[in-house]
Predict the 3D structure of the following.
Amino acid sequence: MHALARRLEALLFISPRPLTSPEMEAACGCTTMEVDDALAVLRVEYAAERHGIALRDVAGGVTFVVADDCSEDVRRFTGAERPDELSPALLETLAVVAYLQPVTRAETAEVRGVSSEWALSSLEERGLVEQQGRAETPGAPILYGTGARFLKLFGLHSVQDLPPLEEFSLQAAEVDAIRARLLANAERRRA
Amino acid sequence: MHALARRLEALLFISPRPLTSPEMEAACGCTTMEVDDALAVLRVEYAAERHGIALRDVAGGVTFVVADDCSEDVRRFTGAERPDELSPALLETLAVVAYLQPVTRAETAEVRGVSSEWALSSLEERGLVEQQGRAETPGAPILYGTGARFLKLFGLHSVQDLPPLEEFSLQAAEVDAIRARLLANAERRRA
Amino acid sequence: MRAEATAVAAPPVALELDLDVFDGPFDLLVTLILKDEIDIWEVRVSRIIAEYVLKLADSGDFDLDATSQFVVLVAALLEMKSRLLLEEEVEEELEDLDPDEAAERLLERLVRYSQFKNAGGALRLRWDAHSARLYRSVPVPPALLRRSAPSGALPAQALQEALAPLLREPPVPDTSHLADLAVSLVKELRRLRLILGDAGQFTFAAVAPDDRLERAVTFFALLELHSGGEAVLRQKRHLGDILVTRVRRPAPVAASAV
């Protein structure tokens, strides 16, 4: 491999987190284009099934991971367990934070229609949600957002890569059914 | 590369310390000869100047290291690394380890009242907490403690210099008293 | 209250609750409306609880997660129903809306909520595909650290402060309000019985105290009167005032005749 690709390989190996292009440029003292070329060489070298490790674009940068088909051995050896499953309530809360961040606890509860205190602190404890300062509103409530661990565990380069929220809207027919139902109730209430 | 070589590559990539032949055999479920063959393949692949990382034989084991001629870039990168901010959860976990070391993951979780897996591995990743052998209790759980990097970051000569906790000075005997007190409080909080 | 007080309740509705599926009142509401075509006012909470307890007894093992989800769910149901029983004050914001507007407002919230619920489902798929990946997390070897963090970059005091809260004994939970409640429920029952005996009927608004907690006690007392067959509760419209009317007991002659 050419020299810069080797130097990048060493950097990626040693860094405990994904590296951004500016970080790689600064460390190697070279241009964006040079880094891109070297990365392309590495991507060929570490293409599927060639090595036991692979390159991934995740959490804002590039990083090495264990190849998927080798991870069973590695888990057996290190005893590392898969992270605990997330309940539907936690996933729903995580979706609210991921899409609306920075978001307060009250806003999260408002969207979900249920107190979200436990869900948020549980997500925070798992490192999936983090405190990102305080809102400049009365009471200065804590603002929550997602961080690098969220992106890594969900295989995302950035939160911009999440599908648009509109994709998850209810079908028009379902909305109509709910509206009809609610209006019928309203009618009865008036009676 | 052939399958076993890839699996070994993944193991060596993830392991924080050199791996011995028996460890590799156990992890991959194969014979000494098979491991030797696979290692030979890896040695060819990672022969001098082919990659930015190299295989090295050290004290009874094999490990990946940064290739010598790539280390300058790495230093430029790591030298710029600042200790990132510790979140309250990380600081609390670090405090538990610092004051109670050596301490197991289960004990840490017990004292804090929440699972501390992510926090401990995150601290380990930052080099603030390190594994210090295994406890002689069933399951031989890993014991965690703080190392030189921790002392330096907090400007301490030794852990004896940690600020005393209320009435406790930090003599060995009193660590047990702190531990007992923390566990009792955790118990009461749960009740 | 549409029918006679909800405590009497409409005929039982066959309601199969898959507890793992519901995450909160909105979720429940959407599902109830979309799938079961039933009305929240017709759901008998006591029946759901009884069924669940039976199911628990049958299965033999106690799943803390599922059970706590169930409690959340039942609490959500009760909250929805109690909003219908209590007066408008609970949802001050909706007070001035006419029912159509309120329905539209609720629809908006349900539609918005559903987006996030579905997005959570999509996240689950990503999680299944990606969460098992193994990233290397090995500290940089000291030899490669040219300039490590400045010595004493963080104050050691921070460690002490982080541990101190765990060393403090947690306060004993204050249970005094529980005792208060028990006493005042008895008192409140006595008071309502007196009014009922004198006047024959009264409205909730006329007798309820201002304090929220005390109002709740008054409401409990009403339910008590109702379930004991001492009074009938009526409500002209949801969120409207409750009219309480004394029930005349059958003449004692009937009893001695048996």
